Automatic annotation (TrEMBL):
One GO CC annotation: plasma membrane
Signal peptide start-end: none
SUPFAM superfamilies: P-loop containing nucleoside triphosphate hydrolases
Entry keyword annotation includes Transport: yes
Ranges where the ABC transporter domain occurs: 17-248
InterPro entries: AAA+_ATPase (IPR003593), ABC_transporter-like_ATP-bd (IPR003439), ABC_transporter-like_CS (IPR017871), ABC_transpr_LolD-like (IPR015854), MacB-like_ATP-bd (IPR017911), P-loop_NTPase (IPR027417)
SMART domains assigned to the protein according to its UniProt record, in alphabetical order: AAA
Highest taxon in the source lineage: Bacteria
The protein's name: ABC transporter ATP-binding protein
Keywords on record: ATP-binding, Nucleotide-binding, Transport
Length: 252
């Protein structure tokens, strides 16, 4: 048994997502691109993991495969104990809606709805009632309590992204996937958003997997996976900034 397997053998002992031999290629023949080349990864529950690496290294592809938004060419993906390849389209859609949360660049908030309505929308679409205590705790953690009646156009970029995070978290998902969540925010708003994301991990035991280009953003993460050319170069646990710089610098 390997060291990794001893540390995180299954979900009950804290693995939120696991891949084995995960490969994803695009195209065929001379134009074939191997975006992921057989990735074995165990992402622990209750932590904020950043996925980093040079442009084209496979970060988005990995996140999309983990989140059931893209299908691997080979290998397996298990999230919250579910082997995604065993789910049909309907079951996968339901699994994503019930068990996963998503935060993307650009927020994707509905402009005619207030912040509170945007946050509640996924639950209402799923026909589920809002857990009032969780809702209040979330908007408190995210610093949105006095902004709930505002529409997106009346909120700053950072506030809009915090609404998007609350919306992703309100149904207590097993894993939240965030793709460059601070990509179009200034540095102050980025710091606020990342701080709130980290607090949701610390205070509510949330699991977050975040793709980022930015060293400053990765500094908020507990762990950092460094991809190079479709393979995991490093999986750093609670790295120092120096260790992170070294791991990233080595890829250039
Ligand atoms: N739909 C697709 N069709 C063809 N090639 C693709 C497709 N999606 C991704 N690729 C290729 O797969 C490789 C990995 O892409 P991916 O977007 O996962 O990298 P990334 O690390 O997220 O890059 P970036 O940091 O620039 O967003 C790249 O060479 C990319 O061109």
């Amino acid at each position: 048994m390997t060291q990794t397997q001893q540390l995180t053998p299954d979900l009950t002992t804290g693995t939120a997502a696991r891949t084995r031999g995960l490969a994803r290629s695009y195209g065929t023949g001379a134009t074939e691109v191997h975006a992921l080349r057989g990735i074995d990864l165990d992402l622990p529950a209750g932590r904020l993991t950043a996925i980093m690496g040079p442009s084209g290294s496979g970060k988005s592809t990995l996140m999309h495969c983990l989140a059931g938004l893209d299908q691997p060419t080979a290998g397996s993906v298990t999230v919250a104990g579910e082997a995604l390849e065993q789910l049909d389209d309907d079951a996968l859609t339901l699994f994503r809606r019930e068990r996963l949360g998503f935060v993307f660049q650009g927020f994707n908030l509905l402009p005619m709805l207030t912040a509170a309505e945007n946050i509640r929308l996924p639950l209402e679409l799923a026909g589920r009632s809002v857990d009032r205590a969780r809702f209040d705790a979330l908007v408190g953690t995210l610093g949105l309590a006095d902004r709930l009646g505002h529409r997106p156009s009346e909120l700053s970029g950072g506030q809009q992204q915090r609404v998007a995070i609350a919306r992703a978290l309100v149904h207590a998902p097993a894993v939240v996937f965030a793709d460059e969540p601070t990509g179009n925010l200034d540095s102050k708003a980025s710091a606020e958003v990342l701080d709130h994301l980290r607090r949701s991990v610390r205070e509510q035991g949330q699991t977050v997997v975040m793709v980022t280009h930015e060293l400053d953003a990765a500094a908020y993460a507990d762990d950092v996976v460094v991809l190079v050319d479709g393979a995991v170069r490093e999986h750093l646990v609670a790295p120092s900034r120096d260790a992170l710089v070294q791991a990233l610098g080595g890829g250039r």
